[in-house]
Amino acid sequence: MLPTSRYTSFFSTHHFYEGVRVTVGIMVPVLVAARYDEIGWGLAMALGALCVSLTDNPGPLHHRINGMLAAVVFIFITSLVTGYALPYTGLVMVLLAGFSFFFSLIGVFGTRASYLGTSVLVAITLQLTESPLGIWGNALLTAAGGVWYFLLSIALYRIRPYKLAQQVLGDCIMETGKFLALKANFYGTHPDLDDLYTQLLKAQVEVHNKQQVVREILFKTRSIVKESTHTGRVLVMAFLDTVDLFETTLTSEQDYREMQNKLGTTELLPHVGNLLQQIADQLMAIGVAMQEGKSFPAPNNIDEWLAGLKETYADSRQKFLNEENAEAFNGLSHVIGGISELLVKVKNLTMYTTYDKRIKLEKKIDYQRFVVPSYINIRLLLDNIRFSSNIFRYSVRMAAAVLAGYGLSLYFPVGHSYWILLTIVVILKPAYALTKQRNMERLLGTVAGGVVGALILMNLKSVPLLLGILIVSMIAAFSLIRIRYWLGVALLTLYVLVAFYLLQPGDYAPLFKDRLLDTFIGSVIAFVFTRIIPPIWERDQIRHLLLTAIVSNKNYYTYIASAFVGKPIDASQYKFYRKETYVSLANLSDAFQRMLNEPKSRQHTGEFMHPLVVSCHVLASRIATLSGYSRTYAPAMADKDFNIFIEKGAQNLDAALQWLQPDAGIVRQPEARDPLNWLEPHIIHLKAELGKKENRQGNGVWENAQDAVLLQFEAVLTLTTDIRILCRQLVENEK
């Protein structure tokens, strides 16, 4: 992938398309209204379009439709109610508190509902002054703007119904490529393994988030899963292969520290790292091609890469193999086998970019098991009306902060005071860490955008050029606001300054000062109320997520390992356990990262929590490795003696769960690390039994297969023991 491609590829993403769509939705009513000298009408419609666009984030079409229509209805109703209440300050304050609480609380129904609540609150804050259009005129035109944006969005979808799916799938493939590039760094010279694991945890969360978006769009879009068009089936197949490729990447998990110690002086490890980086680059390029809907040419030398690595491995093995590094060489042999699988998946993904009618599409999957149903459950809303609910605390905090901001704007008149409320609404989030991050990025973006805007207006007076800057900054701002918030805010500030200057040419300095002052006041209010009405700290929630991660790992392990005692593995069930494990690990890692951004006094000690999170991830990778072995080796190696590994691993995880359960009735005894010496006789016996099977079969089991499988089982037992002991230490440290 060319260096510039990382930047030019942005123009094929759904983020850029969204920026263009929102800009068109806002500017068309303004330009048409200006043509007929009715700019007030245009601005009211633009406001409606802007607010409704906030709910139009990627997802199944019927979810987007429901979100946008609900936004139109709520914006119309709240505009009317607010308009009639404006003459009565006390009533406005009551309404603001009520609306802020309710439209924050509906976030309990999910991300789209949260965006819906934000869109309505933004509309309310921007209409807290009397409109020259009248109450009904303002409400109708604002709703009309929302309807216009809704029609625009649906029309664009109908024209290119698969474009969004292609874009998010391409994004997912690229994120998987970034994850693989991080894995490649483990084979570099003198890698910082601790730092790489930290980066890997963050990257794994991102991959999961991307997969979840694709899963929602593909499996909940009826035209893709039910109409069975060739394009839709190709996209589903490409996604399934992307998930399998990600799992193959996880199966390459090794004891990197030991591998570096034993093989770091050879040229083998850098060769492996370079090849993984080349595959990662291929994935990045395939992701871009998928987003653009273009065919990606398969590299001619892809098989030569692998052949060269195998040759280097054979030479290094002949030169350096001894008793001390034999295990490291065997582990690397498995990595090379995994690379072979990666290259097969890369070839498949390359083929899918052509949408060739001759592509065989034979895989079937039970879609319903892999998506979470979305519906409005009033009981869920009622159950969260209690102070122990984080969303309830957030709703109270939002209502109190908005009320304080409005009161401050009344008694200390400051320029465009609605910017104070707008800042509060967009900064305050249920999690402390996200609120803190948004606060800093909002201030940074406002200052940066204000300075750039002032410099532009100081040196440029040409209306056509300023209009061009306005359009470009709008597109860029709405494209980046969801992924690079501070930069999106900077561009949005630039757009606001230029827009106000074009509407009312004159001194822009007061406008710049108002923007900075109002943003600063809103940020301070948001920060103060986050401490006055604090959220439920991550340390108080992370234990539940840790429990879920351990349970999902246990289910995943016992199901996969059962193949080695002769039980059949159902592909759909296996993938379900795999998905549940990755989701729980992503949630755990995300919560842990948020906890690190909370006040030190509100954090768990990283001495135990960090290694616990890492151990859970590494355990999942080891289980993924076993899943690969289960498909190739288990039928020939199945033996009841593997039960000792399965049962002991499950017992370790059960013991860990007992330590974490908040049940005072559980009797817990002090434990020490279990030495694995007790396994030795079982391993010797099992190897003897496997040898008999090999002799009876005549053609033998794969070379080194027994050692490789047993090595993974031993690694799982070591990790489950570590998790059990770390859970005990974590609990005892809290006392």
Structural class: mainly alpha
Distance between the ends:
53 Å
Beta-strand segment tally: 0
Largest sheet: none
Share of β-strand residues: under 5%
Number of helices: 29
What ranges have pLDDT less than 50 throughout 5 or more consecutive residues? 695-701
- Average residue-wise pLDDT: 84
Task: Please give the radius of gyration in angstroms.
Answer: 29 Å
Order of helices and strands: HHHHHHHHHHHHHHHHHHHHHHHHHHHHH
Shape by Cα distribution: globular
Helix content: over 70%
Notable features of this structure?
735 residues; 75% helix; single chain; mainly alpha
Describe the structure.
The structure is a single chain. The chain is mainly alpha-helical and 735 residues long. The chain contains 29 helices and no strands. Helix 9 runs antiparallel to helix 11 (230-250), helix 13 (268-292) packs antiparallel against helix 14 (302-320) and helix 25 (606-632) runs antiparallel to helix 29. The longest helix has 30 residues, at 705-734. It is globular, with a radius of gyration of 29 Å. The two termini are 53 Å apart. Residues 695-701 have low confidence and may be disordered.
Annotate the secondary structure layout.
Layout: H1 5-8, H2 14-35, H3 39-53, H4 61-85, H5 89-105, H6 111-125, H7 135-159, H8 163-185, H9 193-220, H10 222-225, H11 230-250, H12 256-263, H13 268-292, H14 302-320, H15 326-352, H16 378-383, H17 390-411, H18 418-427, H19 432-459, H20 463-480, H21 485-503, H22 509-532, H23 538-561, H24 571-596, H25 606-632, H26 634-637, H27 643-660, H28 680-697, H29 705-734
